[in-house]
Amino acid sequence: AAAAEHPAKEQAPLVVRHFPEYSPKARFWALRLLANIDDGDSVLAILRQHTAACADVDLSLALGPMVPDGIASLFPGILDHLRNERLGISVAYLAFEAVSQGSVPASTLTASSEPLLALYRREREILVAQQRTEGHHWMWDERYVEPRDHAGLLLDLFGYVPAPPIRQELARAMTEYTD
Fold first, then answer.
1. Residue 56 clears pLDDT 70, i.e. is over it
2. What is the pTM of this model?
């Protein structure tokens, strides 16, 4: 309890070492503790060493409190996890937050264009199949809402990424959706 109330960098190695032993709720709070002390190196160590244990934690919520300099310390290393099916969207959200706040230059994301596009195309495939020209009910179907939210986040992020393939996908999206 004292560690949570008064976190210190000295606690970080213990958090990293024992991370997989924690319950999902405790994992969230362990990452939040590291975020509160802006320890990007320890967050990246957890992601590298205990990727599977991170799958049930929403990284964007857990790491949200990191100040701009702290969130910047996660880049570009955190982008390696864009390809992880369970972590990719959370990493994209953190990238959007970092770039839109000016904490990380947009050019940092250019090297990650392919995994960003792969994330988007996965969502796009679901969305395009469900597009309708009539009615509105389909837009609120449970199977549509989450992919739409994810695709919206990725398209917002794409607006910052100065890479031709990303720009092409943005242009395509302008003509593809009816909602």
1. yes
2. 0.86
